[in-house]
Amino acid sequence: MVKYTNTNTNTMKSFNYQKICLNFLEGLPQRTANVVERRFGLNPLVGGGKRETLEMIGKSHGLTRERVRQIEKDGFFEIRSHIEEHQDISQNFKRILKSFGNFKEEKSFFASLTEEKFQNHIFFLLTIYNDFQRIPESKSLRSFWTIDKNSAVLAKKIIKQTIGYLEKQKEPMALKKFFNLQELGKPVRNFKGEEKLKKKNISNQFFQSSIEISKEIQKSPSGLYGLKNWLEINPRGIKDRAYLVLKEEKTPLHFRRVADLIEKLPFPSLKIIQIATVHNELIKDGRFVLVGRGLYALKEWGYEQGAVKDVIIEILKGSKIPLFKKEILNKVLKKRFVKGNTVLLNLNNKNYFFKDDEGRYKIREA
Asked: What is the pLDDT averaged over residues 73-88?
């Protein structure tokens, strides 16, 4: 019933999953085979190869949902009575899951086995064998398959600790660095029945599979891991991407240059980046400061909003004593990319500043 071709690479085998599934269905009554085939989307010519609900199948056969469910159950009983002689498929799935640490996120697992158009067949085969358990998707975890029901418990502990560490560090990190952290040997607080997570008992593969099933921890295109709401992981629109560009370059940039660098970021591309749009977004966002003609810096670098006059006022307010012209000039140039003469012209505005007898400047009181 089941045929496969040996690829001559040690024990690795390549299976024709579509043909295997069809062979399993051959001995079933026609209606039963049709129900199972449609429930798992095994025929790409029927419904585009998509899985159908009990209700959809029932309508086409004039049957109730419960009757379709019973037919499916009968079909599974018949199929499972023949699978003992075909344990090579099951053993292959087990071997692959063991290489991942005994469990694997569903999409990644299927992708490691075959191309997308045959992944429904993998789902069907895993379902008919009793050796595999599917943990369905939840609010915090992606769906995954396992050969060890205890995997989920330990994986949740690892995820909880890693999230805690990320919240503490506040920056994305490489997966290998996470795995090597001593913090992973400490227990998770307030977790009932907690046992210490000792690195010697956790393989790198198990750790990676654990992180992979978490919805809270995600991998950036650059290969670093962080929390899903971090802009380094999931930047939202042009503003976040502009922030990443400036943070990476660590120096003020002209908005045209920012636009160029946004297009080179390793995230899924946006629509065509309009230079004017980038400029408008930078103006409106408080994270950015216009420090020169078209030049923008990050406010977190110490730059402040306002004209040169306002910068001088803030500098003098922050000083306990009046300042000389050169002192003011040096401080302003650290906050604005402007010509020295521009600073001096503003400083000579007698409506705001005056010079004492020692040549130092103060703010003119209203």
From this structure: 87
Domain that includes residue 81, residue range: 4-86
pLDDT in tens, 130-160: 899 999 999 999 999 999 988 888 999 999 9
**Residue 10: left (phi > 0), alpha (psi -120 to 50), or beta?**
left
179-191 pLDDT, tens digit each: 776 445 454 444 4
Residue 94 within any structural domain of the chain:
no
Q: For position 276, which CATH number holds?
A: 1.10.10
| Residue 197, in any domain of the structure | yes
Task: Locate all alpha helices (DSSP H) within 187-293, ordered by sequence.
Answer: 204-213, 237-249, 255-263, 275-284
Residues 162 and 212 in one domain: yes
Q: Are 223 and 232 within 8 A, CB to CB?
A: no
Burial class (CB within 10 angstroms; exposed 0-12, middle 13-18, buried 19+) of 82: middle
Higher pLDDT, 287 or 340: 287
Give the whole-angstrom CA distance, residue 279 versus residue 284: 9
Where a domain ends, among 301, 317, 337? 301
CATH number, domain at 28?
A: 1.10.10.10
Cα angle value 121/204/152 (rounded, 5°): 55
Cα within 13 Å of Cα(330), Cβ side: 5
pLDDT in tens, 89-112: 899 999 999 999 999 999 999 999
Q: How confident is the model at residue 59 (pLDDT cuts 50, 70, 90)?
A: very high
Please report whether residue 124 resides in a domain.
no
Residue 232 domain flag: no
SS3 88: helix
Q: Which of these three, 53, 86, 119, is where a domain ends?
A: 86
Q: What is the number of structural domains in the chain?
A: 4
Residue 5: both structure tokens together? 């071709």
354/324 same-domain check: yes
Q: Is the pLDDT of residue 346 over 50?
A: yes
| Alpha carbon separation from 119 to 42, 43, 44 (Å, rounded) | 9, 12, 11
Residue 338 C-beta-side C-alpha neighbours within 13 Å: 22
Cβ neighbours, 10 Å, residue 226: 21
pTM: 0.69
